[in-house]
Amino acid sequence: MMIDGRANELPDFQVFRTVIKYCLVIIIVPVLSFFSVKVVLFDGILRLEPITSSVYSAVIAVIVLHVTLGLYIYRAYNEAEKTPPKPVKKD
């Protein structure tokens, strides 16, 4: 009977791992995009004023955030359709 309990925990752990990965991506990628676009493009190449480059970089970071959230929702929706419903145990 212990094996049945472990089998039910494994998919839950995989879901938890996937959520943690996406949480890290949703936090890290917009922050990296903000600083990389600000330093390289707006400050380095275009030589904009600091406040202007920060505003434009924030807009880029918000767009990147929405794309990553959209990818997470898309993946979650597609996985939900693929996963068959769990059988209900009767005790």
Order of helices and strands: HH
Largest sheet: none
> Terminal Cα separation, in Å?
13 Å
Contiguous helical run count = 2
Number of strand elements: 0
Q: How much of the polypeptide forms β-strand, as a percent range?
A: under 5%
Summarize model confidence as the mean pLDDT.
86
Shape annotation: rod-shaped
Keywords: Cytoplasmic vesicle, Endoplasmic reticulum, Membrane, Transmembrane, Transmembrane helix
InterPro entries: Vma21
Transmembrane segments: 20-42, 54-74
Protein name: Vacuolar ATPase assembly integral membrane protein VMA21 homolog
Report on the architecture of this protein.
With 91 residues, the protein is mainly α. The chain contains two helices and no strands. The protein has helices at residues 2-45, 50-82. The longest helix has 44 residues, at 2-45. The chain is rod-shaped.
